[in-house]
Amino acid sequence: MLALWSLVLAQSPFMIDDWVWGRYKIGTIPSYGGRFIGNFFEVLLTASHQQVLTGVFKSLTLAFICLMVCLISGKVNVRRIACFNILFLLMSMSIMNESFIWTAGFVNYVLPFVFVLPVVYINQLLKKQKYSRTLSFNLKIISLICIFLSGFFLENLSTTFIFYLGTELILNAIFYRKNWIYGILSLFTSIGSFIIMILHSDRFTNKASGGYNKTTFKTFDEFYQNFKAVQLVIKTSVFHNNKLLLILVSLFFVLFVATVLIKLNNKKEAWLYCLTILQAILVFLCPTYQLVILAPNLISNRMFFPSIMVLILIGCILFAFIEENAKNKMVVNGIVACLLIGSSVFPTLVFVDMAKWNTNINRANQ
């Protein structure tokens, strides 16, 4: 996985405003948008002018994200790594291009998950297992550091993470009733880093043009029109404006949820399962639907990446359930192999088309 992604990404040149960021000296941390950490890595990668090393760095980041997703799903094995790559390759190429290939998009949309996913994993560990006081304290400190750092990349991801931590606090109050101080500190740490970011972001000031400083509706009807506009953007960008695909994905998800729910005999477990599913759906919708109160035209293809990552995580967890309950592992292996080969066809063809486009970009940049 690491070698293949490095090979692809090492051939993807800097583009759009990467060349502008490349004018800074390495080590500079521009305050643009309050995205301090994202800006630092953008300068580090582009100012080095090392296209191959940048590709390797992106590949290492994706490999770490894959590792964390597999750990959250229960364990790391070849099938789950393949499942992650299948789901990642099924992403719309326009979203992948803006959030993964484009370096400025990568540092703000993909890189923050290096900090977000460890928090999800640590929260999962603290719920399921009991640790010594020292180990538990160390895990919580690592989580709080990751939470704080995750707030300096992307506005809609920061607000989504605040929402996630808030729902975690509610679920803890209902079912677990432990680690109260950690839960409250997590939420306020995320809010604190978000406030620091917006105080240094021109998008939240009155000087911002097309920013986040004012809403675009005054009546309920205008609010409803914004809601419909966001729905249309999601259907077009994520599901390629294909109603059948949307229905199939929704139907598969509902059937799977119902199948698992039937097997749960304990009422408390059933309620926890239902609320966790609801939490996942709301977190998936949060990155884009929060723009209903601002302006749907602010939504770009790359803004869907946080939602796509939630879908990939859910997909890997669902696959883990199938894998653990399947009687014939050979059948599972065959299905995974076929899906992996099939999912490689579409992006491979697009990358071939993109090579000619990259040549034109290089020519223009020269």
Descriptive key words:
366 residues, 0% strand, mainly alpha
Your description of this structure?
The structure is a single chain. Helix 5 packs antiparallel against helix 15 and helix 14 (267-289) runs antiparallel to helix 15. The chain is mostly helical and 366 residues long. The longest helix has 37 residues, at 329-365. It is built from 16 helices and no strands. The protein is globular, with a radius of gyration of 21 Å.
Treating each run of at least 4 consecutive H or I residues as one helix, how many helices?
16
How large, in whole angstroms, is the Cα Rg? 21 Å
Strand content: under 5%
Helix-strand string: HHHHHHHHHHHHHHHH
Please, what is the average pLDDT? 80
Which outline best applies?
A: globular
| Main sheet overview | none
Low-confidence stretches: none
Structural class: mainly alpha
The proportion of residues forming helix, as a percent range, comes to: over 70%
What is the gist of this entry?
The protein has helices at 2-9, 18-21, 36-47, 51-73, 78-89, 93-101, 103-109, 113-128, 133-150, 155-176, 180-199, 220-237, 243-263, 267-289, 305-325, 329-365. The protein has 366 residues and is mainly α.
Secondary-structure map:
Blueprint: H1 2-9, H2 18-21, H3 36-47, H4 51-73, H5 78-89, H6 93-101, H7 103-109, H8 113-128, H9 133-150, H10 155-176, H11 180-199, H12 220-237, H13 243-263, H14 267-289, H15 305-325, H16 329-365
